[in-house]
Amino acid sequence: MPRKRRLPTRDELRVWREFLETGEVLRALLATRLQADTGLSPSDYAVLLALSEAEGNRARSSDLATLVGWERSRLSHHLGRMERRTLIRREECASDSRGAEIVLAPAGRKAFHAATVPHLTAVRELFVDALTPDQLAAAGEVAAALRSHLDR
Amino acid sequence: MPRKRRLPTRDELRVWREFLETGEVLRALLATRLQADTGLSPSDYAVLLALSEAEGNRARSSDLATLVGWERSRLSHHLGRMERRTLIRREECASDSRGAEIVLAPAGRKAFHAATVPHLTAVRELFVDALTPDQLAAAGEVAAALRSHLDR
């Protein structure tokens, strides 16, 4: 629903700022907990999660960039750091322009599995427990509406 | 409402991931628009906004860190970059342990004012226009519930 007026109202802006700021506080708290509990950053966790869910635990770097929603250059730098920590392996593919294939390595699989319960516990304590069932459903609806709008 | 079970259900996790991922897409799109339209990063904008709203357009760095929700070290690095671009000034205060006083400089005031309309337009187009009035109210309620939970 495009509206005619040009700028958000004061109430709309208040919701936006509350939404933005709360999301930042939530991400920062979760990142601190994840790092302290598991030694993984949220970026590490996002890559390991995507590879864990990928067919054969491997993905082209171009596909992985889409899955985690990052620019190729950011992904490439981060994968370099994860490779040095033996969490993932890169298998170069000279014949293929879609980039190297990224493979979940044994240490990455182990770190991801060890992180799962602490991470999910933190998500429950910081996010799920904050909301009533109705609020949780509303959060899902809001996210879906935003996603569908932004995908256009 | 603490619940007895330990891990989130599949549905709760689905909402969490959708909420997290949509927030990231939204922030990335807004950051790209802000940078392209105004030459300011979201971090620049957050600092300029906080100083614009502060009494006398100045704040102690410790208070500014609270206002923008960052660690002191992150704020300090960022303020160094903003000072070199003459967007802000730092006035050291040897007698005061709360840190330097940060002052909105003329170029910062000008950049912030020039950014306001493009930024608010982007917030309307990317966030407000995505949601029905009921969804917007629900987003505000969800954010307030999260904030109140996380502040405890």
Helix-strand blueprint:
2 copies of one chain form a homodimer.
Chain A: H1 10-38, H2 42-53, E1 58-60, H3 61-68, H4 72-84, E2 88-91, E3 101-104, H5 106-126, H6 133-150
Antiparallel strand pairs in A: 1-3, 2-3
Protein name (chains A, B): MarR family transcriptional regulator
GO biological process, one term (chains A, B): response to stress
Domain HTH marR-type (chains A, B): 12-152
Supply the key terms.
homodimer, 3 strands, Arc Repressor Mutant, subunit A, mainly alpha
Describe this structure in words.
2 copies of one chain form a homodimer. Chain A is mostly helical and 152 residues long. Helix content of chain A is 66%, strand content 7%. The model of chain A has no long low-confidence stretch (mean pLDDT 91). At the A-B interface, helix 1, helix 5 and helix 6 of A face helix 1, helix 5 and helix 6 of B. Chains A, B: This is MarR family transcriptional regulator. Chains A, B: GO terms for molecular function: DNA-binding transcription factor activity. Chains A, B: Residues 12-152 form the HTH marR-type domain.
